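Hello, quick one for you while I still have it in my head. A protein chain has come my way and I'm curious about its shape. I'm sending you its amino acid sequence along with the backbone structure tokens. I'd be grateful if you could look everything over and explain what you see. Here's the protein in full, and shout if anything looks odd to you:
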Amino acid sequence: MSAEPLRILVTGVGANPGFGLTRSLSRLGHHVIATDAHPLAPGLLLPDVTPRVIPLVTDPGYPAAMARLCRGLAVDAVVAGIEKDLPPLLGMAPELGAANVHLWLPDADSIQACIDKILFHDVLTEHGIPTPRTWHSEAIDHVPDGTALVVKPRRGHGAQNVHFVDRQDHARLLCELIPDALVQERVYGTEFTADCLVDRDGRASAILRRRDLVKGGLAAVSTTFEDPVVRRRVVETLHAVRARGVCCVQGFVTGDGTVTVTELSLRIAGGFPLTEVAGADLVGQMVNGLAGLPVDHDRLAYRSGVFLTTYVETLAHGDIAQLARLKTATSGGPS
């Protein structure tokens, strides 16, 4: 059983995850209300979507604008394309639910454990799941000499402000420049992403793909593979943080065969189109879950050894006056 065509609002369509999800939903016959805070976000310029500019999630008017948009455009469901939208959307769940707008989110503790990299490290360590050693910026003097390091924002996303260094003094300087920074041990090996869907009963499916070539934090070349050890570690991670819905797990298989998990994002991954090419109905089954229908895990089977290459394409160009069609969420009305 598959969901009937829905009116689905996708946030963060300026980044790869939300942009790709918008295109996939449209191909499946759903109508997408594409939203972003930037009027030139590429997802707003896709054909056959209803584009709306919304406030930043840090804007006090974000919840009211989102609620008004859902009511005015008769939205059936909301899917976050960026992690920062998750906490306010969870807070709006009762209001949106009363308006028959569906969300599929885990609980607040799960969301915080994935957004906050210190908490994520603590949860995985508590469950015995290998993850990089992690230090608060104030504890940088405790980092063993000669450790290759990654300095990143504690609550960052999309590989922004991520730096690799070999010297402790360089890491200390970066911690002064990056707000709320943390320091992690750098892990080397075969990098992977698991595109996952966890149903409401906690059953998880995962499509594994190697990140063969990574540019700016995004997989430019990736290949599906099968490995029972990696799969088991991914499922353990999903259960440890009580993930629900569509999400992705990243990590490395090191030279000694250890599977080290580095991140779990409670959104679709930017490289998820490979899962569709390999035969997995990831987005279709996500929509089923959104609509309250059973997830058919058999439809999430995939072929190993399938590759996908990506590139930057020019989507649109023209006069700035064309942006007049992009109505803001704060203007009200569904016109």
